[in-house]
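Structure tokens
________________
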Amino acid sequence: MKTPLLRFASVGLLALGLLASCTTTVHMQSLAPAAVTMPRSMARIATASRVLPESGRDKFFDVLEGIFTGEGLMVDRAGTEACALSVGEALMRNSPRFRVTPANLQLLGKTREFFLPPMAPGYVRQVCAETQVDGLVVLEAFDSDMQVTQRQEERIIKEKDKPDRKVQVTVAVMEMRLVTGFRTYGPEGTVVDEAKQEDRMHWTTEGANYQEALRQLPPPADCIRQLATRIGDQYARRIAPSYVNLAREVYTSSRKDVYMEQAKQMVAATDWTAAAAVWQQAAQSPDSKVAGRANYNLAVYEELNNRLPEAIAYARKAAYTHQLRAATTYLRELQQRQQAELVVSEQLPGASAD
């Protein structure tokens, strides 16, 4: 299996005030290493959740908690579903590491205890056999808290042909805090990773009074889904190499060199091969500034084609031979990427830079 370690995304123009010339921003995606390396024999996984009330008493306390915290009935249930689903979706969308079965299995658990003891290996193996997978990613703990605060602020209203006037508004801030626990079980039915995660998000609205500001806040169920989805994505990145966004800049204009001007049109058409051929000519310029920028651009071109050793060589020439300050930072980023790809290759059996 050959897996691309980098994906080309898009190109956009960006004017930088600190540079004398115009630059173009190139967007790409690169595989970043996972925080935890999974067993090589673990290729197929299913997602599951143990966060389910086991008794009528637990269900009663879940409802009671929703009433007293203001989160609303079944808000946590919506969050657990979103959290468990988002792990599988993120693994399918952002990582080639696993073949994911979007089963989202519901396993017996409790909500009143945080992080139950691990499931028995025999039970895990049974579930894996029934689902035809090698391992399980299980949401095993979930707790949310919501708090709404208010404050008074002053706004200045400007109207045509009228003097400015000041009005008092009420600002409402809703904070949603979420604490989760995930475990990943491997082919032997034992825990190969365990993580407790905490995250929070804020939503701010304002109105003439507190009630009006509150009405403009989004429903708590929508908020908890949004936060739960983000946490699920974070855990997916913990256990599998995942694509991250990268942005690189190339120099596309230089009044001192005709080759750099020619390449500008080729970049606009995303004809990178033609642009690179012209940059090769610009790299021979007696003007060290022009040559440095051309070598920098060639480094980006090689990175786009996932040829990191060649990219590093061009970046080093731009930085050391032509003293291009931006190339020094870029060289360091390329070297870090090269080290990261070595880790990815270990975590992603069969990965190839081709």
